[in-house]
Known about the structure:
The structure holds two protein chains of two kinds.
Chain A: H1 3-10, H2 12-26, H3 28-48, E1 56-62, H4 67-78, E2 82-87, H5 91-99, E3 105-109, H6 113-118, E4 126-129, H7 134-155, H8 157-162, H9 179-210, H10 212-217, H11 223-253, H12 261-285, H13 289-305, H14 318-323, H15 328-342, H16 346-373
Parallel strand pairs in A: 1-2, 1-3
Antiparallel strand pairs in A: 3-4
Chain B: E1 17-27, E2 33-43, E3 47-51, H1 58-66, E4 73-78, E5 90-93, H2 105-115, H3 120-133, H4 149-161, E6 167-171, H5 179-194, E7 198-203, H6 206-209, E8 214-219, E9 222-227, H7 229-236, E10 238-245, H8 254-260, E11 266-271, E12 275-281, H9 287-296, E13 301-307, H10 311-323, E14 350-361, E15 364-375, E16 379-384, H11 390-397, E17 405-410, H12 420-423, E18 426-429, H13 441-451, H14 456-469, H15 485-497, E19 503-507, H16 515-530, E20 534-539, E21 550-555, E22 558-563, H17 565-570, E23 575-579, H18 584-594, E24 600-603, E25 606-611, H19 616-626, E26 634-636, H20 640-654, H21 660-679
Helix pairs in contact in B: 2-4, 4-5, 5-18, 13-14, 13-15, 15-16
Amino acid sequence: MNPIVERLIASRLWALVIKETREILRNKYLLFLVLVPPILQLLILGGALDPQVRNLSLATVDHAKTADSRELLSQIMQSDTFKKNQLMKSEDALAGELERGKKTIGIVIPSNFSKKLQKNEEAQVQVLVDGADAYTAGIASAKVQRTIYEFHSAAKKEERENKVIEPEINILYNPDLISSWYFVPGVLGACLTLTGTLVASATVLRERESGTMEQLLMTPASSSEILLAKIIPLATFLIVDVVVAITASRMIFGLPCRGSFLLLLLASALYAFVGIGVGMMLGSVCRSQRQAQLASFFINIPLILLSGTVVPLDTMPAPLQAISIFDPLRYYALISRGVLLKGATLDMLWIPLVLLAVSALVVLSISANRFKRQLI
Amino acid sequence: MTNTMTQPKTRSNTDENVVTVHALVKRYKKGAEALKGLDLDIKKGDLYGLVGPDGAGKTTALRILAGVMEPTSGDTKILGKRPSEARSLIGYVPQNCALYPELSVEENLLYQAGLHGVNFEDIEKLKETHLEKMGLLRFQDRLASKLSGGMKQKLALCCALVGKPKLILLDEPTTGLDPIARRELWQALSTLSHEGVTAIIATPFLDEAERCNRIALMYEGKIQLEGPPRDLQEALGMRRLTFQIKTQEKLNEAPAIVQELSLDSVKDIYPFGDRLEVLSSEKEDAEGQIRQQLNDAGLELSEGRESTPTLENVFVIKLKELESEKAATTVEFPHWKNQSSKSGPEPGVAALKARNLVKTFDDFRAVDDVSLEIKYGEIFGLLGANGAGKTTTIKMLCGLAKPTDGEVELVGEKTDLRKVSVRKDIGYMSQKFSLYDDLTVRENLNFYAGIYEIPLKLRKQQIEWVIKACNLQSIENSIVKSLPLGWKQRIAFGAAVMHDPKIIFLDEPTAGVDPLARRQLWTLIRDFAANGAAILVTTHYLDEAEFCNRLAFMADSRVIASGTPSEIKADHKGKLFEVNPRDTQNAFRTLSEALDHWRVAIFGSSLHVLLDDENDSERVKSILSSAGEKPELRSIDFTLEDAFIDVVQRSHRANDGKDRMQMQTSGDEPVSQKSQGGDS
């Protein structure tokens, strides 16, 4: 046997790593925790978190009943924002529908609608919006307004030719605005955080709860060996998770990988260390697995919310944006989106990559320190 | 072996029964059978012991009786009702007391009173009767979490009594209590049973079972033997011969020497720390032959003694029948470390020296001025109640905790006990099981061989030794989780010593294990000591302490007595007397009410009474005759338990009359909390 290999196999670290790996593989709960939730969460969140507003119900009262009014309504219905247009007899009936929450938006077209259009006057249309869901209401009303505006401009052709500047929007990287493309890279990071913290804290605390930790501390193994042996198999499992998740997203959501996959794996490994480090820290602070699980929510939820993976950073108030500078998930999301969607290369991403490495180092050294201090 | 025991007749007349159980079976979802057909008839006022090792099914049986668990099949009737319908008649104290730690003694009791719908006016009376009786009235404002183990158990008993139950069920109430707290609890139970309350007590301690008036020996979900302890001992039809052996070095060889005789009458041979115990059948007299044989082999004997077998003897014989125990094969341990190294084990050289150790947590002294020395080849026992400072002491001795003051020299190292080279010389088996549940036996052994860096070439040989010495051939590829406790303990021991340590720390290695498994483990421990390793062992079992060459008793953070078992037993100002009353329970109650309760204890059918001087015996005689018993006292030698109680009581009295409870309480919780805090 190669002497180096032999020394490796004879080492304490090897014994520890083998033991940790076997424990995770034997323990159904841990194995489930490592493999299933990340991929499941990714698929659910990637599919469900869709910021676009679709399939809203619309009610209209058309007093004009002219070709123009019908044309306007059909134009409004053309996009998939609205799914069904119910014609109502009166404003009262329409208001009732809105009040009961059955319709999101109502349009009232006055009887003089066509006449005013023909006279080239301002033709007024009343738009009633259910503002209870402010986000949907905003998008729906904007959509209706825009359609009406365009309809007007079409009617006043000469004016359009002179005044209206039609912006030509060119959406890059995700031209079809597929929301899952935006979410998957971020959710991938969130899953690494959740799984990393939970499993890492569980492996430490299981050992303490069963009394084997005390035994381990009496063996010649050093605390850094003990920690390293817990990190290595777990980080490997998490990287496997990333590969599986990206492959699955590619098949289901058609997520591209335009940059270097290796770069993405490097960032994922660094980020997995952060997650594991947080878990180890919880493992050395908490007394039981349950306590660690509860505590992990207090860490993970702000970590995810502040990272811009689910809520865009630009929409946050300035102080929160400032805090998010310390959120390593922010950098991981930045890198994974950059690599997957934009094909960004190392020279564009080295700053977040370094920041990620720094946070991994900080979290791991804090937890190693805490772990050592509990000994004596 | 022929079964010399007759099964005690089942008692008929089920009308009187408080508890009737027939063919009770409990199968858990994962297929494990906790109870395999249990039959019980328990009468009013019985103090009934459900005795057996961990995993025998005691807890399951109690939970079904309490109505908190449904059996898979079988009949259970409590005073003619199903357990779930009889709940108001039952008081149930589960294993860890089920008290609310953040409520005070009084609040815990009031809460239970509220649950049982006790009238508001009755509550004062209730507090008086129960708390007063248990000596808790003074502590009624103390939080339950701040009580000592013994007080917690008594409070839990009070809470269970609030609803005036006809039947109380206690699950291992004395686990973790010191002998004095145990005596107090048993006295309380004895009084209760006199008042007509029926009590069922699950316990793993066989010596305690002798304090019940009826017992069932449980093993693997079945009752193996049932009846009054005395009947069971008599039914065994054997004599217990004790040979005091002066030449201790040869003690380990003694069983083999006796076995050479291959006498049919000898059913069991077992060496204790300074003596050999032989069980022989009543008919033939083997004593002379054995004595001759031992003498011929060069063993010097002092006077032999004959006595009635203990319940442990009864159980061991029964277990041997069940397991048809393989003759314990001693496989020589393959020492692989260089024996000529500087601090190599030489008998007589100290492996561990501790001088004036002190450990303080905040303002509390968990360990106060402890000094001890353990030589190579010596088994040293550290005894004491929970909270006496044992665990903290062990942690300081092996380097897991830093002493506040004092110094430790461990295998020649004084400054850095956490050095890798030092840790390689230590074997350590913690209180809880140090094996990985999800790995197989062999994987566990491989792991420990790896972590101690046993050279690759030698690993196989060391692992094979553990497997052979512990008889693990058939289960080496089983997952550890599925094994019985006794096996796990032996594997854990093997794993802790495979690397050929010079000193071995064993923290309560035999808690909860059946007597046969305990013996097997002790055989291994003795072999290691014989090979020159120093061994430090802590234990709750005082009879086990007899296996040690030297002992130290700890109480209130200090070592209050030390020496060889014989020295400790001999060093007493007090006098110990044995009383053989007709009605053991009654005499016990009368005496323990008249004297300090810790002075009286039930040992089998007799009582041990501890008196400060001979003159007090007249008083005892008059108490006995007024209770309708013969006023006869016999002066006897101290057992370790009696010695322990005497020493602890003297130490308490020397503490300027400080209240014992108070000291114990303040000494109890901070230690366990802090020591947990230390390792978490």
